[in-house]
Protein 1
Amino acid sequence: MTSARPKFAMAALVLASMAAFALAGHIATTRFIQDQQAHHLDELTEVVLRRSEFAVDFAAASLDELAGRGLATCDPASLQAIRLHVYQRSAVKDVRLVNSDGSVICSAYSETLEFDKGWVERGDMLASRDSRLMLFRVEQFGGDALGVLRDIGKNKALVAILGVNASLFDIMPAELRAHSEVVLALNNGAQLGEFILDAGKPLPQPVEFAKSSTRYPLRTVIRIDRTALSTWNNEAYWPAMAVAFALGLLFGVLLSRSRRMEGPVADLDRGLARGEFMPFFQPIFDLGTGRIKGCEILARWLREDGSVVPPMNFIPLAESSGRIEAMTWQILGRALADLHPHLRSDKEFKLSFNVVPKHLLSAGFVETLRSVVTAAKVSARQVMVEVTERDELDDLGRAAAVVRELRDYGFRVAIDDVGVGHSGLSRLKELGANTIKIDKFFVDTITVDASTTTIVEMLVALARDFQMTVVAEGIETHEQVRALISCGVEEGQGYLVAAPLPFARFNALLASRAATAAAAPVDDAVLVA
């Protein structure tokens, strides 16, 4: 009887421990799933807002170009030139010359005036951060449009009429598509467009995610049925609960958890000390010919046991713990040493590497980069700094000064993740970079979504206006290559040519491509998957 009591107490303790961890696991897992859902939906809301901002950027740039060419008049020659301009830019439906009070003087396509239900006065238009730019809703038969007004002098202004395509908002995951609504509106509540599969069926218990533009009076809202949201992306719940039950069997779990929290950072430090972080090389190629013109280096962690740790498992921790700077210099130095013979023999070949905004703005960044590149005996113009947009460039003026200094020394600068990151197109121009990199998000949908094609065309057109080159990321099919070429993109990277490769395999790929190019006539050059 006495021996049964300790066993009973131990069993009770184990059961209590399991119950406590099960409860904690339920709370933590539910919160984690909800946070992940909120983060994902917040990103989708941001995508809709960025797409809308790009459309306004595009309209404003078009109006600036027309004004700069002296076409803000109603004479027939000017109107003909404006019509040609509108024809070449599919997102713009019409351009109108208006008085200072907003009343219409003339229109490139005067017949579109017949479709207006009404026209707002200037006092009802909404101001942007740019005081010369105002936005308003144009109510038309068959659907509303967005008016973008740009002041031209004191007495008149140009207005671009942008069609609001509902397909721009068709971004929801398949599981939520029939249970959600995506809305674009002005800050005064005037709705510009929406996507909802069944407009006649209201959402019973909507949960709302909203985001407002800091540059324009635009607001995007995603509403989702709470019931559908509760069952979306919850696959992790039961595995997490199983882990919680298992942890309930272990004593001293708090101590082991605290050690694990310290462990990853210590692992990073040991990896840096041992030189375990290696560059992998992904080709950047000419979309028309397939010729490899450069590469981007990407971090991989090669442990002593031969296992390879993918970047998503250590880059966020390296950034948050401050180890990313030492890791970047270690990887760049090794990549320059590996590629040194090729960089010396091919002066047009370029190597690019990623830098987070905090590192770019850190003290001594330019000086350290120069010393690393000089020590490698490589030309600065063959090195491109890719500024990633996971974090926003809070001090744009300081960042622009760093970019100018880099360019003065011969380095090139690219902005990564354009279209889904933090920078609007006007900020890109202020930053003064050489290149923009179109995010894989757009490449994935360019062959199936007409709105993506429009956005990529706008990016290319504005990049040319800013005298920047364009590189598309994440290319996987020949159909994507053809679609990108038709939009005016000339360079890209992606698994179509190669995944990120260790240097030996990348060097073999360069040698193979060189041999193929030497054996084939120039006219027969093709993209080799």
Protein 2
Amino acid sequence: MKKICFTLLIIGQCVFAQNTTKQDTTKTQELENIFVTANRTATLRKETPVAISKLTAKTINETKATAVYEIINKTPGVLMVNLGNEQHMMSIRQPMTTNAYYLYLEDGLPIRPMGIFNHNALLEINQFNLQSIEVVKGPVSSLYGPEAVGGTINLISLKPPVDPEFKFGVQADNYGYRRFQAAGGATIGKVGFHIAGISSLQENGWMTYSDYNKDNLNARIDYNISPSTRLISNTMYGKYYSDMSGSVNEEAFNNRTYKSTTDFTYRKSEALRTRLTLEHDWNNSSSSYITGYLRDNKLGQNPSYGIRWSPTVNPTTAKGEVNSNNFKSYGAIGQHTQKFDFLNTKIVAGALYDYSPVTYWSYVIDLKANLNPGETGKQTVDSYQIIAEHPDSKLADYTADIFNTAGYAQLSFNPIEKLIITIGGRYDNMKVNYENGLDNSTGSKIYDKATFKAGANYNPFEFAGFYGNYSQGFAPPGITSIFRTKPGTGGTTGIPADFYYNLSPATFNNYEIGGWITLLENKLNFDYAFYYMEGKNELLNVKLPDNSTDYRSAGETRHKGIEFGATYRPSKQFNIRAGGTYAQHTYIDFKLSDKPSDPIQNLDGKEMPAAPKWSGNSEISYYPNWLPNLRTSIEWQLVGSYYQDQINTVKYDGYNLFNARIGYQWKSIEIYGNVLNLTDKLYAYNVSRANTTDAQPTYTAAAPRTFVFGIQYNLSLKK
């Protein structure tokens, strides 16, 4: 293996460029123990006082995923919820949610700027361009800023190879999905390049009205100006369009009648991200980088989740919406790393500036609800039809300039042998200058916060280590929340519109301890983490006496649990992986209603909905000696039961799911097949219902047994 250490590649990571010779076990293990996300610089696992996991190139390559959730769900303590066509929710130290409590990074840089969170951001990722994925569980706001609360996912891209490489392939399943993919690169003299592209298409799937297409292209060029100075450019462009089939009712789910209630809802996006990084190593103990970047993102949708229908008020009508959210970002981030001999001290410090102008509008559409036969109070909708669109009846209409500035620093040192102390802090300031078209007002809002962390690693033995960590996190309200009108204002009421300018950031305090153990000559590895996290000022809807709802920064929640992961490799033929989490997510102070007649006024002490206590992913892989280059595996995904509603009346049983994978490499050709939902189990990715006694559940149905086939050609020219 040739080792090329670009000391501060984008976020200070050490990159191992490998030739086509087979890696030895020691070096592979060395590579897997190096992490870059938790400390913004290459750090050994035993020196990192957080719960962090890495999904390696080997795991990504063998999974052959059609969507990135198939890879990420292999991480202990993580449940990425598939919403169809690469749309998703996330659950890391939180219930399954679309809230802005997760930070998604691409080579260390956030995919979205602060204040413009999108829970579907990972659908823009090119799966054929991934070298590895690192997942930090718990808050890392002290290094990365807001929204890094429940977890942070860093998708690390492929680097230019030393020797010329090229690969291309096709992938398809039995429900109309197909994908074409190609990638290649080389290093010629001082210049290295890598290009990767995919084109995905779904037609006539198992769910009606569920087509989508996605095209992504990634390009990277590295210019080694000198042994100590490098210039790196990285560009991504992607387009996406998807029907939004939405959820189904209970009867349709149980009968496997996978029929969408709409044929007009959609989501479309166009994204461009480009950056240029200059790195310099001043000496063996000092290095710096500066990155300038641009984001250009356009998102339009007629969302299925935006449909509002009441079975008790007027069951044959409903309301929907069409919206558009476009932004650009112009920014720069710089970082310096300095090492000292005294106490083996290392300092990482940096600053960020980001300017993101955004435009958003949303208007009302009138819908007709065609009902299924049913009892009064238990009616469900067979289909919706658009009756009229009202572009002049705006639900929101604003432009805003978002200015994000931040500075951060982290210090680590060894006060005594085998003990490493890490402390860090960051200050974020988000200023929003806005023009609100609904009331023709202008103004500005500032959300700022200083966050702190402190941790320690103690490694008394070669085979075991422990850590403890205190960390803070925060998440400002998304600006789409700020500009929603308060009930009873605006529109045709004759009362001037009022908006949620008073919303406060949610804050979190996290405490955790954990450790790792390696036994049986590195054949058995086990790691674990116990965590306790409290959140305050969380956003919630509170019912008012007139049955309208108010949006408040007033909730308090508690999240606690244990995460664990283990790998056992008894021989070269077998690899066994097991991982999961047991968690409790509870409302501490969460007032549900101000209406005196409501039987339940608050949710204090109740479990949060969509919060399974048990979840996990385990896998057994077999690489037979009698047929080299063959791989097989069986994967088990567990999602335990959880409450469908906030008032804890009805549970969904959860599910046990099995997937099987097989692949064979013959010379430069790889043939593979995956069977997802091996037992053809009837299950749903998510089930929810309102708090009323006669509310009907809605099911985000999961796919029946699916056969995925693919062939890939891999060419590598050795020097």
Protein 3
Amino acid sequence: MSTGPMSDGENYRPDWGSLRGHRVPDWFRDAKLGIWSHWGPQSAARSGDWYARHLYGPYDGTEEFEQERAGRQTAAHRKRYGHPSRFGHKDLCGLWRAEKFDPEALMDRFRRTGARYFVSMAAHCDNFDLWDSAHQPWNAVNVGPRSDIVARWEAAARGAGLRFGVSMHAGSWTWRWLDAAFAADTEGPAAGVPYDGHLTAGDGRGLWWEGLDPRALYGRPRRPGEPPDPEFIDDFYARLRDVTTRHRPELVYLDDSRLPFDDGSVCPAAPPSGRGLEFLADYYNRVPEGVVSIKTVPGRDRGAVLLDVERQQLGDTDPEPWQYDTSIGDWFYCDGYRYKTPDDIVHLLVDTVSKNGCLLLNVPQLPDGTLDDATGAVLDSLGGWVERCGEAVFGTRPWARYGEGPTRVTGERARESALAYTSRDIRFTRAGDALYAFLMAWPDGHDRTVRIRSLGRAAGLLHAPPRRVTLLGASAPARWTVRADALEVTLPERPPTPFVQVLRIDIGEPGADEAGADEAGRTAT
């Protein structure tokens, strides 16, 4: 597959007209399932996402959807670690040690789960770099683990045959997030005492962080709403180029509505910055089969950047490839958090793939780098389903319809939820002459007949009648009938897998050795 002007020996230029010649590569369209590691200093608190910001609360400007978590994390931090004038985000960086991190063992588990690509955190909104950063002294080699986390993830992923990606959240979010470190309590016994964002390198003399400057981690003192400085923007893009040059990831996840600091970004510069276009051109010239994702993409730019949809389901098939990202639990490890079930995840995967997307699934890790038993059980169950039904997922493409049935996402997109699927809910994919029908729920009662309306003769969607129908994982052949209004398939007494069941429907002329088997399953045409 051509990836744009590089095939003619030309370079991409830092403008949309040139970058629109790029295309999302086929490796991504085939991959369907990726595993993502949200893991870093914030994991040390075992209190979930946004901890590096919320530990400085309470403060004005907390987003409404974050207020409950902000209050919980603020109270927990002060009870466990003390006031943020003395113990702040910088100190968590020293606590996070990753002492049991075994990326090879983890990657083998992810591969057995079915992952075809792996994404390492490069830097979260907390501004701590997880590689041997040339521009950020607050990094995992200098502080905490004393180890290049990204390099170790990369070696493990490539060794296991997975494509490798990095996610970069520092940038716009960091500028907005860490302004909280420059505030102070407005009431109580510590009212007016500045938080640790006001500390300088000189304040570290004799302390564990001696020789490091907190300003390199937090940025300059600022108030909420101030536009980012050019120096801050330059630093972000220097670090982004550093990590992508060192590790040549095939996927770069940018956690922003548009290119960081550009018009439409969560934190646009004044005037908007064009550095993102420079990065895209440079990156695609270095990694022609790479892909960069952002979260708001006009239709005309869908080759230049990949649409990423966070914890939201699309209502219909997208004509362009896209990525759906979610987590088994909270983004960072959180004690007591309710995890998704394997059933939830399989349903999300199937619905996403049927609509031309890939699922990027975050796996919350304990601070020491291991997985808890509940996470391991989810991965093992997902891997068992993939072993039986993966042919209907990997390397497939959308069919004429993504599915049928009463249960669907309302509107163009909606917040993810565990939908109450019925036996009438079907999702489809295709690969060559094989059409796959995913049964989102097993029929209730004694009627074990599934009726697929889209495959009846009257629908006119098949170029030829089915010649064989197989229930993946079942030991006995399926019995099936084509009627005007539906393809009817009689299912066995028990489902062959614990989750979504899959019918493989072969269409086209059978080979000589297949003809007898084809007739055995057919009861009418």
